[in-house]
Write a structure and sequence with these properties.
246 residues; Rossmann fold
Length: 246
């Protein structure tokens, strides 16, 4: 009997996944900068949460029956937010590349909420049926992917999980960070390239972090005032809807 060898992942894909692990490892130890106790983070988080709730209301999302996958769920903080929004744990799934982060996520979410460790772009990572999810969410994952083809493979995989009429929920920054070579901005034109058949709507959010840290050191109440200047916002919250019947 002939044995069929397993499909091998492209070398570039394996290399990029390893590179992402190294980039995140270099950023470890800076938790205070990203802590919710940091006023800049607190305001940005609350602003994003309000925008997501408004989006869900406009889309008539029923969180109790909505199926959602988060790509790059980290330590599970975003999944906890969805639980607070009344999403049900058995309808949520997190995928995380880093073993340590996935372990932390499992420790804080309900047992009914599955956390998968692996590379979401790898077809062998997780057995998510095609067209089975209402929402596929990513938060600052694509800005950490510096290989265009890897981005495209991951985007195609995310789209394949969506049911017709479902959507990619996207939160990421659009401009490059000249102080951090491990990330790059994902502008709107790139989002359109990654999901060419998606119907895109977006909202600019999040005061540029260096500015946010500065103004909140002066006084926390300055964040909402300064963030009224749309030119100082560096992120977008986007909804990229898969067409019905596609």
């Amino acid at each position: 009997m002939t044995t069929v060898p397993p499909l091998e992942r492209p070398v570039a894909e394996v290399d990029e996944a390893a590179a992402v692990r190294n980039r995140y490892a270099r950023r470890c130890g800076d938790d205070e900068r990203y802590s919710i106790l940091n006023a800049a983070v607190m305001y940005a988080t609350h602003e994003r949460q309000r925008a997501m709730i408004e989006l869900f209301r406009s889309l008539h999302v029923n969180p109790r029956v909505t199926r959602l996958v988060e790509v790059g769920c980290g330590t599970g903080k975003n999944l906890l937010e969805f639980l607070r929004f009344d999403f049900q744990p058995e309808h949520l799934l997190g995928i995380e590349l880093l073993d340590e982060s996935a372990a932390q996520a499992r420790a804080i979410v309900p047992n009914a909420l599955r956390i998968i460790t692996g590379d979401a772009a790898d077809p062998t990572c997780c057995a998510i049926p095609p067209a089975s999810q209402d929402i596929v969410f990513q938060s600052t994952v694509f800005s950490s992917l510096l290989d265009d083809s890897f981005q495209e493979r991951l985007a195609a995989r995310m789209r394949s999980w969506l049911r017709p009429g479902g959507g990619i929920l996207w939160y990421d920054f659009t401009v490059d960070n000249y102080r951090n070579a491990d990330v790059r901005g994902v502008p709107l034109r790139r989002i359109r390239q990654l999901f060419p058949d998606g119907r895109l709507q977006y909202r600019r959010l999040t005061l540029a972090p260096p500015i946010a840290r500065f103004v909140t050191r002066v006084h926390p109440a300055l964040y909402p005032l300064v963030s009224h200047c749309s030119g100082l916002r560096t992120h977008v919250l986007a909804w990229i809807q898969r067409p019905d019947g596609a």
